[in-house]
TrEMBL record:
Region (Disordered): 22-71
Parts forming coiled coils: none
CDD domains (alphabetical): PEBP_euk
Biased composition (Low complexity): 22-43
SUPFAM superfamilies: PEBP-like
Protein name: PEBP-like protein
Top-level taxonomic group: Eukaryota
Basic residues bias (residue ranges): 56-66
């Protein structure tokens, strides 16, 4: 037989969670607690505005006990910051001596660079040694500032002045030695972009792609949520909704003078039924893009062959979408292309590069992957405006097909 526990009477009056001190004090006056045995407690004044009349569980935590996460201030060219020593001067004498030694060495190298520059300008250096002297001068100008802590701090925090040689050197070494270029080349070779698209490719430009984040699974959030954009990793797999609009491209070049480049975006994985192989589709072409070390921001948009979103056909494996930013053989000459868009289907990248003297020992590259989804069918219907093809493996012949069709009993 089940027994119910006896309910205990509440000794503390009930009050709403959002009640004020006055309401709590008035509620406590309805059922007053028993008189205190000590005369000091009995003589204590009852003030509704005093927090001491509340029980400890009614008191707030207080601002001093609140913990706020440490957020690093945003540092960029629009909101610059200055380098500050990690310790105050005089706190660590060894650190102060190290800074003094670095600055003394930088000043000595700068004096040597100034002397060499003056000798070149006055013609003291022999004619056959002028080129070597200029190269030596470039090295000295970089060495004079490369060890200064404020220079390295600005280069690491996106505040590099790309008009100066030392910052161009630091930014380029960071791109080459800290994994960004290695990851790009790994994906280009691992996914056979080289040699399927081009036989040789040696990037010298840091080409970065920014795409919106993937759509949420919830239909309500998909329609209402604002999606953020962020740099993406080379070789990653994206849904076609993320690339419905042209991606934002950022290029960092390391030469001070302006040079012309041509941007290509191709898909080398379009099935070719006649040859039982694959052909290349041209998605985007922007010729004659002028870039230099001081040109920052998005790549300029040049209307020649407009952007067509990726649209993998149903039944095909993942498609590779390759971006190529190729330099011109003559960096000051523009390409002469027909005014209208080029033929997209069966586009020959190697022939285009050879005909227009584009270089592969330089420039930039990027690639990502995509597979068929519902957005791909929507692009075929709304953008391509052609019937969507569907691919698959041919049916296997059934060795017992004739026997199955024949009548068993005659």
């Amino acid at each position: 037989m089940f027994t119910l526990p006896r309910l205990r009477a509440l000794r503390v009056p009930l009050a709403r969670a959002n009640s004020t001190l006055e309401s709590l004090s008035s509620a406590s006056s309805i059922t007053s607690p028993p008189a205190s045995s000590t005369p000091s407690d009995a003589a204590a004044p009852h003030d509704a505005d005093s927090v001491s009349t509340l029980a400890p569980r009614h008191r707030t935590q207080g601002r001093k006990n609140l913990k706020y996460p440490a957020i690093r201030p945003s540092i960029n060219v629009e909101r610059p910051r200055e380098w500050n020593p990690p310790v105050a001067p005089g706190a660590i004498p060894a650190y102060d001596q190290a800074l003094a030694y670095i600055r003394a060495d930088a000043a000595a190298v700068q004096v040597e660079a100034d002397a060499l520059r003056l000798s070149i300008e006055k013609g003291v250096v022999p004619t056959e040694d002028v080129e070597d002297a200029k190269k030596r001068l470039e090295v000295l100008e970089v060495m004079a500032q490369i060890n200064l802590p404020e220079v390295r701090w600005k280069a690491a925090n996106g505040m590099a002045d790309m008009s100066q040689k030392v910052y161009r050197h630091l930014v380029e070494q960071r791109w080459r030695n800290e994994g960004a270029l290695d990851l790009l080349m790994e994906r280009l070779y691992q996914m056979h972009v080289i040699p399927d698209v081009l036989p040789v490719l040696q990037p010298t430009v840091d080409l970065r792609v920014v795409l919106p984040e993937g759509p949420p699974k919830d239909a309500v959030l998909r329609a209402r949520a604002k999606r953020k954009t962020a740099p993406v990793e080379a070789g990653a797999l994206f849904v076609n909704e993320q690339t419905r609009r042209p991606p934002k491209l950022y290029a960092t070049v390391f030469h001070p003078e302006p040079r012309f480049y041509t941007l290509l975006m191709v898909d080398p994985d379009v099935p070719d039924e006649e040859s039982q192989s694959f052909r290349t589709y041209l998605h985007w072409l922007q010729p004659n893009i002028s870039l230099s070390a001081t040109s920052a921001g998005l790549l300029p948009s040049i209307a020649h062959t407009p952007y067509v979103p990726p649209h993998p056909a149903r039944g095909t494996p993942y498609h590779r979408y390759v971006l190529l930013l190729l330099p011109h053989a003559d960096p000051t000459a523009k390409l002469s292309l027909p005014p209208g868009p080029l033929e997209r289907d069966a586009f020959d990248v190697r022939k285009f590069v050879q005909d227009h003297a584009l270089g592969t020992n330089g420039g930039g590259a990027f690639m990502w992957r995509a597979v068929w989804d519902l957005e791909s069918s929507r692009i075929w219907r709304e953008v391509i405006k052609k019937p969507e093809p569907r691919y698959g493996y041919p049916p296997k012949p059934d060795p017992y097909g004739t026997l199955k069709e024949a009548k068993r009993y005659v």
